Amino acid sequence: MTASESRVVQIRSNDVSWREVDGEVIALDLRSSTYFTTNRTGTLLWHAMIDGATIDQLAALLRSSFGISDELAHADVESFLNLLVANGLLVRSG
Amino acid sequence: MTTISRLYGMDVASPFLLGHPAMSDQPEIRITVDDAPSQADHSEPLVGRLIASFALDTPQYALVDLGDEGYLYRFHNFVDIKIAQNQRDLHCQFVAGAPEEVLPVILAGNVMAMLLLLRGELVFHASAIERAGRAVAIAGHSGAGKSTLAAMACLARSKLVTDDVLRVVPTGIDVICYRGTAALRLRPSSRALTSEIPWDDHMSADGRRLLSSEPTTCDQLPLEAIFIPRLREADHPLARTLLAPKSALFALLELPRVQNWNDPVTSAEHFMKLATVVEQTPVYALDVPRGVAAGPSWFERLTDLLFEAPSVPESVG
After folding, report:
1. Helix/strand/coil for B65
2. Do A26 and B249 touch (CB under 8 A)?
3. CA B262, CA A41: separation in Å to the nearest integer?
4. pLDDT (tens digit per residue) in B45-100
5. ipTM value
6. CA distance to B28, B132, B297, per residue, from B301 (Å)
7. Shortest CB distance from B268 goes to which of A22, A24, A30?
């Protein structure tokens, strides 16, 4: 396990308003007045990241939920995190 | 002389009749008009935190937060409306030479919509009609046909709930809406429609064809459905398509009553309430054929479609 994968990642809570609608998260970034939406995989990760989680924890969640390989799970998590970073919605700590 | 009107669930005192007769003699909102013209230079930039603004070739209106001094809502080269910090007292001051007769139209529409939004209320850019104690909303941009379709429904035994501004409240149990203006304001392009209208009509102060339809007697009603018209080819059937909640949410987010609203707190409230509404209230795309030769039978078909109960299951567009 690399140091980066044990770091906690979290959804930014300041100035973000979000709701789950029909199984998908729709988030309003109040700073930029832009909307961010997730698919069902992203919704699962979003909920896990509200209070913070490590990348390994997130990958384990996808493995157990969808029965996918560890490699694919980590790739999906990284992809989702990149989207959050691009939209200014990710907070890293630890 | 002060008149108290009932509008969007509030009793509003003003020099004008803005809606329906009041339900109490204790107005929640007080609007006054200054006898003296404004001395402010409307070409100067406004001071304060900008909450909303709209411009075409020239600035049209702007709302700024003045902190302890409340808010200023400026219709450029027309009127300044000072809104107290309590969001209950409004004071209007015209620019010299401004067409003051337009003020009641602006107050009942744009100003009340702005005030409701400031208060964190959910406001639709919609007209609404009622049949048998149930309301449906027709939402859309300016010129989308909201008032025209509402007028057609009123010709087919529906009653008017409001035109152009609809206050919607998700209560946690259901979704309700409030009665608003008592008349429909139609564009001159609706002339073909107005030939079918049996009641007297006249022009509004802002040049719209103002039609008084039988209004609902209910101050508040359950909101049964929301329709978003989309104009189709002439041979396209009149039809409705249920939108998935996520699609409905984004469709309605693109139809704000007030353009370019930029206040984080009220924007968050608006978003959360709208998300609740689309989870509880069906939202349909309403396909309307272009250039239809509208007559009484078509009005009946339209109205029946608007008030038709959801079929189970209903295909989602």
Report:
1. strand
2. yes
3. 31
4. 899 999 999 998 988 999 999 999 999 999 999 999 999 999 999 999 999 888 88
5. 0.87
6. 40, 17, 6
7. A30
